[in-house]
Amino acid sequence: MCGIIARIGSDDAADTLLTGLENLEYRGYDSAGIAVQNGSGVKVHKTSGEVSDLKSKLNYLPTGNVGIGHTRWSTHGPPTEENAHPHTDSAGDVAVVHNGVIDNYAELRTELAEKGHVFRSDTDTEVIPHLINEYREELPTEAAVRKAVETLEGSYAIAAIVEDEDRVYAARKGSPLVLGLGTDDWFLASDVPAFLDYTDEVIYLEDGDVVVLEPDAYEITDLEGEPVHRETDTVDWDPEDAGKGEYAHYMKKEIHGQPTSLANTIEGRVEDGEVDLESLPAGSFTDVDEVQFVACGTSYHAALYGAQLLKASGIRTEVIRASEYDSASGPVDEGTLTIAVTQSGETADTLQAVRKAAERGARTLAVTNVVGSTIARESDDAMYIRAGPEVGVAATKTFSSQAVSLALVSQRLAADVPHADQVDDVEAMLESLTDLPEQVEEILETTDAERLAKQYIDSDAFFFIGNGLGHPVALEGALKFKEITYEHAEGFASGQLKHGPLALVTERTPVFAVCTGGDDGKTKTNAIEAQTRGASIVAVSPDDHPVVDAAEAHLSVPDTHPVWAGLLANVQLQLVSYYAADLLDRPIDKPRNLAKSVTVE
Ligand code: F6R
User: How far is CA 551 from CA 83, 371, 530, 576, in A?
Assistant: First the structure.
């Protein structure tokens, strides 16, 4: 939800800011802007649209060694040029970029307007430069920034530049901000890919941190101005990982990256038929009585997958959409383990659910892709899924790595929780896991998804059904399809089709029947009920599955243990969505109205 970047060095900042914004566009892409300071005031350039629109609009690269930039996902006000960041005070002396939501902006705006400040946008952000400017009348800039930040209620990561000052001022509370330590320059950004081309040395800032960057120094303090020490980390993502490479879209690159991402997820975690999780050694969960998963969207589907495996070992388990936590959570106490499943580690709904669970006494575990993310830092433990950077807004490789990670965590739980039973064939299951990356490769080389997408592209709607572990796969197949094609797609537990949705079925509504475990007989029967009403069945199953004979089309799933078969089926469905969206000429990596990291509730 909005990407921010700041850069200070000895040479011009604009080029680096624009490249950084392109790498952050997955966080929002409805308007963009930069501001630079070059000793003759602050110059702001912004536009509605994407970073490419901003670049086309700039006839020249503005000069100045200190700069900030922003790419927006609108919350307050439509995506117009006026609402694009950076925002300035009335005189244009202070420019600010902001990620987050200022809850008390309406009161602050009224107070500032009464004092003569002139507002030009509908945004909550605009109060920040006006506040800084107001306080600068009596205080040095750094103290004015600190006072402004203390006045704000809500969440923010902000970066500000000020006329004629060779400095960037920044602060964070509730929205991510990372400091990048280059050789000749410093960076601040919402996420590491913004500056990965220049440095892999980073400091993850924490809530309450205030940062001042100068060309040859930086200082991190708390709100009172006391210096604070933060560890420096080295990120192990390759800059190559952040680009599209030979692929037309990040999504395709990321689908095709799954043999590697899955191998990384598994590496060193399965030894001699046993699970070995570095951050969660044997005995980690002996105090756990029950487990609740909290997650949103695709991560929720991964959680449904993991929860089924956990239930099989007799552990009481609930899966809660994080935004529904208040009404959906059962009793919580110190025997509850709350597992937050979130690729970004920043999703506001999930963060709030974790905080509420912790307040009620639960132990918390983050299963996430992003080291140092807010949910990882706030949880008692973290397990990283190691999928590498995912830029396409539609989650693909993170889903498969989440599901595998949760399967491994569920085995650790089954072994540790005193009243749990390990499933009978755990060794066979873990052994077949090591074949998963190769089997994904096989699908990528042999898939019929592109042809099928062409065959069915003119349909009125697309239904996805599955039972047991096939159910979350059906839900995820439909979510991916609607998200990037903008076509009507729904996923159902197969037995539910006849309880209402069947009314929508016609000869123009193909039904993708995921038969990869669970009661596939039920899925086949319900698919045939739809076929009787004219629908085509697309079987997503192993070649020898009986559903194939009944179906009009087939997406093949290599033979594997039933626990992993659904993940292979999901790769086929990712490919169908991708090719369908490509045929429809959709902006696959940046579907309308969406953003990769949703940091508002
Ligand atoms: C769909 C998608 C979203 C996210 C959801 C949660 O392709 O990516 O549904 O899964 O917004 O995001 P995280 O996993 O970052 O918490």
Answer: 52, 44, 11, 17
Does residue 240 carry a pLDDT above 70? no
Please tell me the residue having the least CA distance from ligand 1 atom 3: 297
Cα(465)–Cα(105) distance, integer angstroms: 46
- State the average pLDDT over residues 274-299: 95
- Note whether 302 and 472 are within 8 A (CB): yes
The three-class DSSP label of residue 244 is coil
How high is the pLDDT of residue 135?
Answer: 97
Confidence class for position 29, pLDDT limits 50, 70, 90: confident
pLDDT, averaged across the chain: 94
> Atom 6, ligand 1: which residue's CA is nearest?
296
Nearest Cα residue to 117 out of 104, 130, 126, 108: 130
Task: Enumerate the active-site residues.
Answer: 2, 596
For the chain, state the CA radius of gyration.
Answer: 25
Q: Within a 13 Å sphere around the CA of 533, how many CA atoms are in the beta-carbon half?
A: 17
Tell me the whole-structure pTM to 2 decimals.
0.84
CA 348–ligand 1 middle distance (angstroms): 11
User: What separation in angstroms does the CA of 390 have from each of 23, 63, 167, 253?
Assistant: 11, 32, 32, 9
What does the block give as tokens for 200? Answer: 């892999």
How far is residue 61's CA from residue 34's CA, in Å, rounded to a whole number?
11
- Max Cα-Cα span within the chain: 80
Residue 240's CB: how many other CB atoms inside 10 A? 8
In Å, how far are 72, 469, 489, 598 from 394, measured between CA atoms? 18, 21, 15, 13
Q: Is the pLDDT reported for residue 436 higher than 80?
A: yes
pLDDT in the model for residue 520: 84
